[in-house]
Specification:
It is a single chain. This protein has two domains: about 80 residues, Orthogonal Bundle (Helix Hairpins), CATH 1.10.287.180; about 100 residues, Roll (Chitinase A, domain 3). The relative contact order is 0.18. It has a five-stranded mixed sheet. It is built from five helices and seven strands; from the N terminus they run αβααββββαββα. By secondary structure, it is of the alpha/beta class.
């Protein structure tokens, strides 16, 4: 059996397919971003053709710049295409979050979580809106932060009732989580926390490490 090629030895594993909850309109934003990249690429190809007609390619910096820009756009298009192909996106209307039951922690709830670090025994208390993929806003008026539903902290806490505990392995270390309160957000909180939907910032996993 021939040895594996070097470029495959140190490549990060391909992320597993998953279901991602997003806000209404997210799929449209993904499609618009891909179309915008296609338009940008077409313009760069035209720049490359025009630069190519200017003579000696060895010192033709316009040609080289256009060529590199096309490669960068191609990488973004490939990464976005893979992101869409690997995942299933379920669109959610945040209006439903205003009145949903609060027996257990679900997407769209405001939760107060106590986190105790297992190693240091230190306790910290946080209040989050458990929200859809990619949300990172902070409400300066109430102090509530967005916590994406697929983050390690949310994944460990979802489904818990008030007073329930769960052990979670977080990036900062192992912790014990305790749900202290669950409530629905207010319309004003949603207005301040949910910003305009943007395309994802996707890491290019096609490059060699």
């Amino acid at each position: 059996m021939p040895p594996p090629r070097r470029k495959n030895i140190f490549r990060l594993p391909i992320p597993a397919a998953t279901t991602i909850y997003v806000r209404k309109g997210y799929n449209r934003v993904l499609a618009e971003e891909f179309e915008a990249l296609k338009v940008k690429r077409a313009a760069l190809v035209q720049d490359k053709v025009e630069a190519h007609s200017q003579g000696d390619l060895r010192e033709n910096f316009g040609f080289k710049a256009a060529k590199e820009a096309i490669r960068a756009v191609d990488r973004k298009m490939t990464a976005l295409d893979r992101f869409v192909a690997r995942n299933t996106f379920i669109e959610i209307d945040p209006a439903a979050w205003l009145t949903k039951p609060t027996d257990t922690l679900q997407l769209g709830h405001v939760v107060t979580l106590e986190k105790q670090d297992v190693a240091t025994k230190r306790k910290h208390c946080f209040t989050f809106l458990v929200t859809t993929h990619g949300e990172t806003a902070v409400d300066e008026e109430s102090g509530i932060e967005c916590l994406p539903h697929n983050s390690p902290l949310a994944t460990a806490a979802l489904g818990l009732a008030v007073g329930a505990e769960a052990r979670a392995r977080l990036p900062a270390g192992e912790s014990i989580l305790t749900v202290r309160a669950i409530r629905n957000p207010t319309p004003a909180e949603l207005d301040r926390l949910l910003t305009a939907i943007k395309p994802p910032e996707i890491e290019d996993d096609t490059a060699d490490l």
